[in-house]
User: Which sequence fits this backbone?
């Protein structure tokens, strides 16, 4: 975001304790953005917040919260309003993936994925967007996945939730652009091992084709696209090429090919 952002505005990053979320927080702090950090681990959030306050001289607020719980997005916005924290950049990054046969995976865990990838994103966007529209400025970054570009057997619900997120985000971009709101839909492919040695979506991503990328590169490209006004971002040439090529094949054949690549050994 431009350096002219008022000092009473905050960027909210979900899933901020590790992976892409942590890197987003660090990159935004380098831009002197005040931050609201959300994740389940209070200990990790507190340590990151202190690091960013000391290094960058910014304001950082933390909210230890599990956004996979129904209604958590609404609860978070209520807490923000109670503390009078103004959000002008929303980074919907929190996510996880599970791999295996849909019928054999735990149902509650899969429902949590829907709540986290879709319901919480809709809640946060719906409740934070009006203030951005009133100010005629703001930004939303939705972290989707290359997995949402095609049906992915053995990551069935993961790819479905990311497909929803991608189409929701792209449609929203057209609605709110005239109000001065920039929306970036970023669809990474396979990521390198996270700096902290933990990648919440590694299980769901590791079998999908595409170039392996550094978290920092994905975040850098995303923020540059935000500066340019938003849009769809597929980081990396290999991922862009794969996305174009798969459009020339029937979707059932694409699903068949992905299924062969990603089928668990014990299935």
Assistant:
């Amino acid at each position: 975001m431009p350096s002219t952002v008022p000092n009473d505005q905050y960027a909210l990053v979900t899933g901020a304790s590790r992976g892409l979320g942590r890197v987003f927080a660090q990159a935004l702090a380098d831009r002197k953005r005040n931050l609201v950090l959300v994740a389940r681990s209070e200990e990790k959030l507190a340590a990151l917040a202190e690091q960013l306050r000391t290094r960058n001289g910014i304001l950082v607020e933390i909210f230890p919260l599990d956004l996979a719980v129904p209604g958590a997005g609404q609860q978070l916005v209520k807490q923000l309003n109670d503390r009078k924290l103004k959000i002008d950049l929303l980074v919907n990054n929190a996510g996880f993936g599970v791999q295996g046969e849909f019928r054999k995976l735990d149902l509650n865990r899969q429902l949590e994925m829907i709540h986290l990838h879709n319901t919480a994103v809709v809640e946060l966007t719906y409740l934070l967007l009006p203030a951005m529209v009133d100010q005629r400025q703001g930004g939303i970054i939705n972290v989707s996945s290359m997995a949402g570009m095609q049906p992915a057997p053995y990551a069935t619900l993961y790819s479905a939730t990311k497909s929803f997120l991608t189409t929701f985000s792209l449609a929203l971009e057209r609605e709110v652009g005239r109000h001065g709101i920039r929306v970036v839909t970023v669809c990474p492919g396979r990521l390198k091992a996270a700096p902290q040695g933990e990648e919440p979506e590694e299980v769901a991503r590791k079998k999908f084709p595409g170039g392996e990328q550094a978290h920092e590169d994905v975040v850098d490209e995303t923020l540059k696209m935000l500066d340019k006004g938003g849009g769809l971002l597929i980081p990396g040439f290999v991922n862009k090429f794969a996305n174009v090529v798969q459009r020339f094949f029937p979707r059932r054949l694409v699903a068949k090919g992905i299924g062969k690549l990603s089928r668990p050994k014990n299935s």
DSSP finds nine helices and seven strands in the chain. The two ends are 47 Å apart (CA to CA). The first strand starts at residue 9 and ends at 14.
